Amino acid sequence: MDVMEDKTFATPVMVSLGAMGLRFVASVWEALECLRNQWPQQDSLEYKRAVRICKDALEGWMSAAKARQAFVKAAQRAGVFVDSSAK
User: Fold this and answer.
1) Record's Pfam families (predicted)?
2) Phi then psi for 11, rounded to 5 degrees?
């Protein structure tokens, strides 16, 4: 059995998950875990696409950059994305 290899994001993504508070998501594995266990809105197209792309990235079919991009789009759609570049 192949072991999925985590891929680190070039820049972590900050999301605000209600009672969970702010969370920095720094890798594909963390993004997938966050989507599956802490996401407020699991029925949007962006959510489903982000889950699929994160799985593909862990299996080596997609880049971490593509997974990050999909995760950010899902976060924006769910209203939990925090722009960490605005310092």
Assistant:
1) DUF982
2) -135, 125
This prediction has a pTM of 0.90
- The domain locations on the chain are 8-82
Predicted confidence (pLDDT) per residue in 16-68, tens digit: 998 889 999 999 999 999 999 999 989 999 999 999 999 999 999 999 999 99
For residues 41 and 20, the answer to whether their CB atoms sit within 8 Å is: no
The pair of structure tokens assigned to 87 is 């310092």
Question: Please, is 83 exposed, middle or buried when counting C-beta atoms within 10 Å of its C-beta (0-12, 13-18, 19+)?
Answer: exposed
Cα 35 from Cα 48, distance rounded (Å): 9
